[in-house]
Every structure is written in structure tokens, then in C-alpha cells.
Amino acid sequence: MSRPLRILAGMLLLCAAGIGQAHKLSDSYLSLRQDGTGTTFAGQWDIALRDLDYAIGIDSNHDGEITWGELRASQQRVMGYALERLRVESIARGDREACPLRPQQMLVDEHVDGHYAVLRFTADCRLRASQLALHYALLFDVDPTHRGLLQITSGHLSQAAVLPREAPTIAVNLDSPQRWQQLAEFVTEGVWHIWKGFDHILFLLTLLFPAVIVYRHGHWEARGSWRASAFDVLKVVTAFTVAHSLTLSLAVLGLVHVPSRIVESTIAATVLLGALNNLVPVVLERRWLVAFAFGLVHGLGFASVLADLGLHGANLALALVGFNAGVEVGQFAIVMVFLPLAVLLRDTVFYQRVFVPVGSGVIGMIAAVWLISRATGYPG
Q1: Element housing 206 (H / E)
Q2: For 47-70, b where at least 16 C-beta lie within 10 A, e where not — what string?
Q3: pLDDT tens-place string over residues 15-58
Q4: Domain ranges across the chain
Q5: pTM score > 0.90 for this model?
């Protein structure tokens, strides 16, 4: 097998290896609000019940359903587990002091992707902070892909940040928001999200496979020129981008709400239909219309990252622009890796008769498993 084919096959296998990670990625939502004295912060931390169960086991009868009784019985363990993994320090005039965290109460709330424990606590600082330093370590020991989504409010100023395992510590200036840093963090989060969102990648690949070939006389054959292939990719990717940007914005602004199970199941269905269209071509022209229609659904999937953070004003604008830009950068990188290799191989019988049908078949089987799992709630 030639080197370009090995690279293409490796990309497909990498996505297939992520079959179990195609659901919404693990996030928690942490907010801190400074009170009038400037020395106390009221905290709220929303953590997915599925993540807490995975980390410390709160489903006592192992029936796959976490009840309020089970959560309440685990309250002390949940509070201890979480607050031990968060450190808050106040910084004022060069002095730095730890702010003890005191648990207040635990509630439960429903987010777009399921139920979350809502932990309320206070961070009591002796110094009136001009800066706040946080070290975040929730779930990193069991899930290195976990992210903490942070919002800090001081007076009328509010700031947002992302806390990944690679950069778990942040210092926030409470008097002067660092807007460019926030924008850069959400751009990075958008890139990371598309690269770890295997369902989105596989759908994109189902659109890219036929970009360098055309279906004539009952079989695939090479397109006439690389320019024609590039133009087809441009139309398809642009339509997909416009569509998911639209629904991402509408969902985060609260103008559209669709239950998570429906969104995730429909995304799996789009991947399956895209793969089947490569195996039994039905839509040959205007594939960009299909990309646009299906992109509307994928945008709702992207929105789940930001919708529950509760951002407003400048924070919301920065998060939306940054995250969306990051998604496009990540998507563009995938296209730039795939397209040149596909152009080089488009004339080969292997690409036309083996790689495209086998690759589409593998993607279709993966998508079918996702669809059944998401539609039924069964952890496939």
C-alpha cells in the first residue's frame, strides 16, 4: 500500500478507535461571584452525574439510573471529592493567600446532555483580592480529556475561561478583564472539540470521500482536475460551516432548544446517511445542500459546550466567536490533510473501488452503533 493510502487509512482507523468517545465530551461548569466585601466568593459547580459516578461510584444499586436518594446519600463524598480538586487563592498587592472552600448545599439540575449535581460553596478570602488564582484538577486522574468551563463575576465585570488538564491553573485580574486571552482560550477549545468529536469528523469524511471522484455508469471515476475537486470541497465545507455556525449561535443565545438525545441521535443518523450515499449514490449533485441541512444538526451538537455556561454580553460574544473560529480552524486542518492525499490517489482503482466503499462501510457501521446507543440510551 502506498504511503498516501496508509495515511488515509490511519485517519479512518483513528476515528474508528474513538467510537466510544463520540458522545458529548466531559465538561463541568464552575462559577464564582465576588460579594460586596471583596473577600468572599459564592461558588456554584455543576458536575455531570455520569462523571461523578465514574469517578467515585454513586449508583449504589448499579442499575444505570442515579436517583436523588443515591445522590443525597453520597453528598459528603461528592463535596469532598470535588472541593479537594479545586484550589482558590486571592492575590492583593503582592500578597497571596489561600481561600478555604466551605460547602453549602447540593442540588440537582438538568443540562442539555443530562443531569448534573449542583454544588454550592463559598471561598472565604482574608485579603480583598485584585486577582484570583485557581488550580483545577477535577476528573483529570480518570479522564484526561475533561474540561472545566469557568466564569468569574466581580461587580459588573464578568470573565470566562477554559481549564484543561494541560493548563489547569489560571490567574484572573478582577479589575481588568483579559479579553484577548479569553478569545484565544475559546479558539483553542473549538479546535480541540472538533478534533475530539469523532462523529463530526466522520461526517466530514463522508462529504470529502467523493469530492475527488464522480459517479458515472454505475461506478466511481476520477474528477477531471484538482480544481474541480477543490471547488466541490469549498462548496460543501462552506455550506456545512454556515449551517452549523447558524444553529450554534441560535442555541447558545437560547433561541433554539432541542433535547440532547434527539440532537445526538440525529447527528449519528447524518453520519450513517452520508456513508450510505457513498455506497449507493442517491444525491450526486448539489451535495452542498445536504451538507447545509445536516450541518444545522451538527451546530446544535457544538452548542452543548457553551449553552450551559450561562454567558452574557461580551463574554458570550467572545466565546461564540472564539469557539466557532476554533471549530473552523480544526475543520480546515482536516481538509488540508485529507484533500491533497485524495487528489493524488483519485485515479487509482484502490481509492475508487476499495478505499471509498470500505471506508464508507466502516463509517456506516460505526454510525449505526451510535444511532442505536443514543436513541435507546443503551451505552453501546
Answers
A1: helix 198-208
A2: bbbbbbbebeebbeeeeeebeeeb
A3: 554 444 444 568 899 999 988 777 889 999 999 999 999 999 99
A4: 3-22+197-376, 27-178
A5: no
